């Protein structure tokens, strides 16, 4: 229906806050599931996990630091509101991933179960963030900037980055665990591709 997007009310501030809170909490749970099973994932979160495994530094500080260079791109390409929400989401995720292990401990988990559960919870969390005008920063912003300014397909940039992350993962976790990790990352991408559609969700 013409004009439907214009007449749909935006999310209120309170709705955005709860959306960012719930979304980042779900992704934080996903990170804990990955760490409990010794798994990785793609994008900046995956690089942060690989770095955390290799260095012993906590995921939260590494993830927060790795995202810092991308905010100026977000500000230039998407705008102030998105950048502030994304900064808030990244900060919340960094905090939650440091606090959650003190409140919830997962003693043992099969890597396949961990991969599936982590992919599902991360997918749900990211959908919540997307629908409230935020993201978890990182490579996606760079990929679309390169597509706009250099004509390089965003999908290829993201795929190339993930290939590097998983290649690095072979140096810090067993090969079979990397393969389980790929299953989780694939499930996450399927969830996002299937559900993140503006024609099915028009509230902004």
TrEMBL record:
<dbReference type="InterPro" id="IPR051461">
    <property type="entry name" value="UPF0750_membrane"/>
</dbReference>
<keyword id="KW-1133">Transmembrane helix</keyword>
<dbReference type="GO" id="GO:0005886">
    <property type="term" value="C:plasma membrane"/>
</dbReference>
<protein>
    <submittedName>
        <fullName>Putative 5xTM membrane YitT family protein</fullName>
    </submittedName>
</protein>
<keyword id="KW-0472">Membrane</keyword>
<dbReference type="Pfam" id="PF02588">
    <property type="entry name" value="YitT_membrane"/>
</dbReference>
<feature type="transmembrane region" description="Helical">
    <location>
        <begin position="52"/>
        <end position="72"/>
    </location>
</feature>
<keyword id="KW-0812">Transmembrane</keyword>
<feature type="transmembrane region" description="Helical">
    <location>
        <begin position="112"/>
        <end position="145"/>
    </location>
</feature>
<feature type="transmembrane region" description="Helical">
    <location>
        <begin position="20"/>
        <end position="40"/>
    </location>
</feature>
<feature type="transmembrane region" description="Helical">
    <location>
        <begin position="78"/>
        <end position="100"/>
    </location>
</feature>
<dbReference type="InterPro" id="IPR003740">
    <property type="entry name" value="YitT"/>
</dbReference>
<keyword id="KW-1003">Cell membrane</keyword>
<feature type="transmembrane region" description="Helical">
    <location>
        <begin position="165"/>
        <end position="192"/>
    </location>
</feature>
């Amino acid at each position: 229906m013409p004009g439907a997007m214009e007449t749909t009310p935006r999310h209120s501030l309170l709705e955005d806050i709860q959306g960012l809170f719930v979304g980042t909490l779900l992704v934080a749970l996903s990170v804990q599931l990955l760490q409990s099973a010794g798994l990785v994932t793609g994008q900046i979160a995956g690089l942060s996990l690989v770095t955390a495994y290799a260095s012993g530094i906590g995921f939260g500080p590494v993830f927060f630091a790795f995202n810092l260079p991308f905010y100026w791109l977000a500000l230039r390409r998407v705008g102030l509101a998105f950048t502030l929400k994304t900064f808030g989401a990244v900060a919340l995720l960094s905090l939650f991933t440091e606090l959650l292990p003190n409140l919830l401990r997962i003693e043992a988990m099969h890597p396949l179960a961990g991969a599936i559960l982590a992919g599902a919870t991360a997918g749900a969390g990211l959908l919540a963030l997307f629908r409230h005008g935020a993201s978890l920063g990182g490579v996606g912003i760079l990929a679309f900037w390169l597509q706009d300014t250099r004509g390089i397909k965003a999908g290829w940039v993201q795929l190339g980055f993930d290939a590097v992350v998983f290649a690095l993962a072979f140096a810090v976790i067993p090969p079979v665990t990397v393969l389980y990790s790929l299953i989780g990352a694939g499930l996450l991408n399927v969830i996002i591709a299937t559900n993140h559609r503006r024609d099915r969700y028009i509230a902004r």
